[in-house]
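Predict the 3D structure for this chain.
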Amino acid sequence: MASAQPVDDVNGAVEAAPEELNQWKRGFTPQAEIWNGRMAMVGLSVGLAVVLVARLAGKV
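Done. Predicted structure below.
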């Protein structure tokens, strides 16, 4: 949906416009949830990389 105005769906959730998805907004907004997911994946990836490197270094 490319409209500039947010649209309410049946469940009451507000849909964000595509150009707003990468904005840094505070509070419980779709943008904040997207950044939360991105940062969670970065943290998970870094944590798994540390564990992998630690296990490989321990076998040498």
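Residues 46 and 55 are 14 Å apart (CA to CA).
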